Amino acid sequence: MPLQIVPLTMAQEADWTAFLNSHPDASLFHTVSWKNLISASYKYKALHFLVYKGNAVQGICPVFFVNSFLYGKKLTTAPFNFYGEPLSTTPKVSEFIFAELKRLGKAHGVSYVELKSREPLSEQITKQFRLSSQAFYERTMIPIGSEDEMRGRLKRLAKRMILKAEEGGMTFEQTDKIEDLRAFYNIMVKLYCRKHLTIFQSFTLLENYLTYLKPHGHMQLCVGKLNGKVVGGTLLFFYKDHLFDQWSLSDVDVRELSPNYFIIWNALLVGHARGMKDFDLGYTSPHDAGLNQFKTRWGGVTTKINFYFMKINPKAKLPQLDYYTSFGLVRKVIKISPQWSVKLLSKLFVKHFG
Predict the structure, then answer these.
(1) What is the reported pTM?
(2) How many domains does the chain have?
(3) Which CATH number does the domain housing residue 46 bear?
């Protein structure tokens, strides 16, 4: 019985979800909820498809069409700092998926197809489709166990900083209040304008997390408070028994309390209470020394995220991956700009960074 490509529509959503439920490598970023979230937030066209053999799903592939003035037209399995590699049951199905990605790339006139994978792709796929690869960003995974087990893996500095925040009066809450989400976002804006000097996501994205992820139990906002005021927090994603840290941040004006240690520690406790087995701290540029040092203090394991590019246009220029050291002119402009103007700039242009 031949393999068949079927675009994902509402009629196939149940089959798609059932396949994810049975596949060991499925993630939140493969789900229908995530597809709808990204499409609603950035107006990217979703071209997700399934591979059937008869009535049985043999593979799936998330893919978005992005038209960016920075990078031109591309297809990507996961916009921004996420991953969402194709999933299949056999190497033959994988080949079928990559052939369809190549066809879609040509049909949409893109320069290249971008894939982000937690594990290296097979040598056969890499050679057959002439994929170039970059293993640049690093991803840290912390095992979740009992409180005593997790505390035993902490580096001495992390233990000291957690205690400092506790003794300083910080409290931790899981919350669904829109005013707490707004306070969390305002801290993000301040942080990006004063420290990171780069554009940031809109508040609409955070609202969409509530709309598309919260009803399925995939998302929780947690905040750290000092004297009743939100001074930091984290957006946590849940899928199966995996916990993902979307954003952890704190107000630069209370850094003497090292609130990020306190926030991550309590996020681990939330993961334990919900039966999670690991905590993904997301991926980081190797040039961000401070953040990488922070991530080493939790007893986790760091691996590379594998970026693959399939050139559709042979003359296409592949993107500069390291956002941490890129866009020097943009950073200089943000440094001297009022906060309201950076918010406007971010709202207009953030979708072009996907």
Answers:
(1) 0.91
(2) 2
(3) 3.40.630.30
